[in-house]
Every structure is written in C-alpha cells, then in structure tokens.
Amino acid sequence: MTTVNLENLKSGMILASDAVLLNGRILLRSGAELSDKSIKMFASWGLTEANIEGISETEIKSDAMRHLDNELLAKAEVAVREMFKFTNIEFPPITELYRICIKEHTEKLAGVSDNELDS
Q1: Sorting pLDDT into bands at 50, 70 and 90, what band is 12?
Q2: From CA 85, how far away is CA 64, in angstroms rounded?
Q3: Looking at residue 91, what DSSP letter applies?
Q4: Handedness of CA 18, 19, 20, 22 (dihedral sign)
Q5: Is residue 60 part of a domain?
Q6: Distance (Å, whole) CA 9 – CA 41
C-alpha cells in the first residue's frame, strides 16, 4: 500500500483503504477501482491523497517525472537542494514539497507550461 497524492492518481488504480474525509465521511470504499469521475470527486471534496494497492512510491515518483529531461532535472535538483539546505528532507511533508519544487523548477527551466504537460 502506497499513499498517492491526488495529482498522481490515475483511473484504474485500486484503493487499499477507504477514501475518508476529515469529517469521517467515506467517499469510496477499499477495493474500489478509481475512475476519472472518482478522482474529480476527491478533488471537489478536498481529498488530497489516497492509499493505493500494488504500486510503490518509487513508481509514483518516476511516473510523475518521466516526461522531464534528465539534464534539466539535475540542474533543478541542485538549485532546489540549495533552497532546502536548512530543512530535514527526510520529514515526509518536506520530502513531498521538495519533490514538487524540483518538478516545477525543471518545467520552468524547460519552458514547459502546465497546459502542455496535460495534453
């Protein structure tokens, strides 16, 4: 079971546990297969992540950055590492923020807009 951020959820993934809001309301039960509609529902209700079966954290990270150029990715990582030099990168929220910053910085270096990536 791996916790996957909303932006990385894909249709066809299987929930490893119930998708539950902070108020306790269950949006989707464990074992359900995600669809585009259910992912949009998660976003509209403010659910930011879900536990998914059969996928590793490494797969999620590599899939999220698959489209990025390795050379630009390396340059972005150097720049972002400098910004995070006084933080604990091993702390899960910081790890995720670090990952997002590297992705965004790489896209900025490439001159790629979010609209181009979504197509």
Answers
A1: very high
A2: 24
A3: S
A4: positive
A5: no
A6: 12
**What are the angstrom distances between the C-alpha of 81 and each of 12, 20, 59, 93?**
34, 34, 22, 15
Final residue belonging to a domain, choices 55, 77, 99 = 55
User: Between 106 and 34, where is the model more confident?
Assistant: 34
Tokens of 36: 């585009």
Number of domains in the chain: 2
**Do 113 and 70 belong together in one domain?**
yes
Are 74 and 42 in a shared domain? no
Residue-range definition of the domain harbouring residue 14: 2-55
pLDDT digits (tens, 9 = 90+) for 30-85: 999 999 999 999 988 988 889 999 887 777 766 666 667 788 888 999 999 999 99
